Amino acid sequence: MPSRRLTPHPALRACLPVTVLAVTAVKLALAARWGWTQDIPGTQIEAEGFLASWRGAGGHPTVFPLGYYALSCGALLLSQWTGAPFACWIKVPAILSDAVIALVLRKVRGGGDRAAALYLLNPVTMLLSVYHGQLHTAATAAAVMALWAAERGQWGWTGVALGAAVSIRQHFGLLLLPLLCRRQGRVRLAAAFAATVALTVLPLSARYPAGRLASPVWVFGAWGYGMLLLQGPRLLAQLGGPDVTAMAAGLIQTLQAHGPKLYWLWAAAFAAWTWRARARLQTASSSWRAALLWLVGLYAMSPGFGVQWLVWALPCWLIVDRPQAWRYSLLAGLFLAGSYWQWTLPGAYGVDSITANLGRLRPADLLGVCAVGIIGLATWWMSVRTAWRLLRS
């Protein structure tokens, strides 16, 4: 007897849009009252520099494409017009993007109400949108819309949405490769993507050295093997172990100088994998799996990190492997919360780097710093294992 697909009661299905509206309203209210990270003042300086450059009054923006500046400058102008703090307005794109992603996940094959709710009420999304103040979620929303449009065969909109994602965060550009493996719509997809990128990315490319605009911005020593190399010797010395700082110094300097090349190495490996797997990349589910592979591969290969990156892979993970996505969310959420706490310690102790001054920490704070590092390594290792599993499959 064929199995029947169970569908939620209509009343239950109607609950999700109401929940999305309610959670979004709560987030907007909290954003106006909660604190923020130092990324917000930095983003404000970047927006001010871009507007000054645009008006011919000097200033030089940092390495981001036009979509990023459209959102950051929009927040700055709204702050100036309304008198509300920039720190409130810069959180709005991420909060609204969370709502968009949840509603799209509801419609995606393999998604549904549960995937949408798990994304919306996720500790990663809650912390990053309400507290952090970042635009990575907006780029993620555009990438999710691109994958959804591809699922529906709307190839022109796929190219526009993916180009919009690239215009905020360059990292999503390689998602084009598995989508181009589909047998239909290649020309429309490529043309729409190229036109969007030409309008939003290329106008700023002449300001930077060749390839610099395509290289992710990252912080060395905050993630994965970079954390082990930089922070491990410091902790070992604090615990009375051998001093291996000099042994790690050469490798650390090499990674700091040539770290971006690892991104190009992973890009080449992903392109080769896409070519070999092109016959299997014909379905909607395969596009989500390929996107997850690209993003967790970036997590795994990265010698540095920004905690905002943690939202990139989450929607794809919820579609491909929901139980593992929730385990990732718990680990990543703990790492986020711990990182925010750890960032308050330099000011409390009057130092520039807390891990370079472990000997000054109280025992409870030292234990907390170690716990944050262990949770971060566990999150990174989950990304490594997932990337390896997807590569093999």
Q: How would the blueprint of this fold be written?
A:
Layout: H1 10-31, H2 39-54, H3 66-82, H4 86-89, H5 92-107, H6 113-120, H7 123-132, H8 136-151, H9 155-168, H10 176-180, H11 186-200, H12 202-205, E1 219-220, H13 224-238, H14 245-276, H15 284-301, E2 304-305, H16 314-320, H17 322-342, H18 345-349, H19 363-392
Antiparallel strand pairs: 1-2
Q: Termini, distance in Å?
A: 31 Å
Q: Averaging pLDDT over every residue, what do you get?
A: 87
Which regions have little confidence, pLDDT < 50, spanning 5+ residues? 1-6
Strand fraction equals under 5%
Tally of contiguous helical segments: 19
Net shape: globular
Q: Could you tell me the number of beta strands?
A: 2
Order of helices and strands: HHHHHHHHHHHHEHHHEHHHH
- The helix fraction, in percent, is 55-70%
Q: Main β-sheet: number of strands, strand sense, barrel status?
A: 2 strands, antiparallel
Helix- and strand-based class?
mainly alpha
Radius of gyration: 21 Å
Trace the largest sheet across and list its strands: 1-2
Protein model, in words:
With 393 residues, the protein is mainly α. 70% of the residues lie in helices and 1% in strands. The chain contains 19 helices and 2 strands. Strands 1-2 form a two-stranded antiparallel ribbon. The N terminus is likely disordered.
Task: Summarize the structure in short.
This protein has 19 helices and two strands.
What are the defining features of this structure?
393 residues; mainly alpha; two-stranded antiparallel ribbon; 19 helices; 2 strands; disordered N terminus
